[in-house]
Amino acid sequence: SGQVGLFTGCIAEHFDRETLVAAIELLTAIGFEVIVPSEQSCCGAIHQHNGQPAEPFISKNIKVFNALNLDAILYTATGCGAMLSEYQNSDTQAVENFKQRLFDINDFLLTHWPEGLILKPAKLKVAVHEPCSQHNVIKNQQTVYKLLKKIPGLTIVPLPNNHLCCGAGGSYMLTHPEYANELRVKKRITINTVKADKLVTSNFGCSLYLSDHDGEIIHLVRLLIEQLPKS
Questions:
Q1: Distance CA 28, CA 42 (A)
Q2: What is the pTM assigned to this prediction?
Q3: For 180-199, what is each residue's pLDDT tens digit?
Q4: Does residue 35 sit in helix, strand or coil?
Q5: 43 φ/ψ angles, rounded to the nearest 5 degrees
Q6: Cα separation of 107 and 145, whole Å?
Q7: pLDDT band at 160, cuts 50/70/90?
Q8: Strand 125-128 versus strand 155-158 pairing type
Q9: Of 203, 120, 200, 207, nearest to 158 (Cα)?
């Protein structure tokens, strides 16, 4: 048990509330109190990608989360996590204090999963998309597969060519729409070839960009909460 802070991210805050709600429910179910600071801001990644100063966002988020008595600071989107994990500013002690408690929600759930918590089985084929931010910066894609194994009955497959970008690439889809769309088309063909019931990804930017294919693209926490036994 303990107290954790949830970083919501600016896009997910408006467009992916289901994931944030699922994260809060899951963390509560395993015994943590979840605080969502209203003063937090965008992680600053989009600004940094476009050569604009991210410092105001960095300073604000560090200040807001460091002011709270938290065991961990958690994020659900690997795109945000990649940025948060590389925060730098002049107050090195504050940055260190922030980063030491920063965790991807998947890693945190796997570490703190109660032995007695058995999820309901699901006869589904689930494909795993590994975002570039996860692959290249956070490097915790194996955690996703380990957590998925908590659901009995799943057939779990990695999406072929997971090393290739889906085209979203932070703001790449906005700055280079034609190239980004070519990557998206290739990724969608791959997704449709796998014929999975659900596609799991840990980055909302990717799921938003890929979202109009036939199957369902969701964050892992949403799949886990669906299989959580109702007490």
A1: 24
A2: 0.91
A3: 888 888 989 999 999 999 99
A4: strand
A5: -70, -25
A6: 11
A7: very high
A8: parallel
A9: 200
Give all strands of the β-sheet with 72-75 in edge-to-edge order: 32-35, 2-7, 72-75, 102-104
Query: What sections of 113-171 are H helices per DSSP?
Result: 132, 141-148
Angle, alpha carbons 128-130-134 (nearest 5°): 140
Looking at residue 38, its amino acid is S
Q: Is residue 110 a contact partner of residue 143, using CB atoms and an 8 Å limit?
A: yes
Contact predicate 147/220, CB 8 Å: yes
> Using only C-alpha atoms, what is the Rg of the chain?
17
Q: What is the spatial distance between Cα 55 and Cα 61, in angstroms, rounded to a whole number? A: 10
Q: Which amino acid is at 52?
A: Q
Inter-residue contact 5 to 74 (CB < 8 Å) = yes
- What is the number of alpha carbons within 13 Å of residue 39 lying toward its C-beta? 12
Q: Which residues does 92 contact at the CB level (< 8 Å), separation at least 6?
A: none
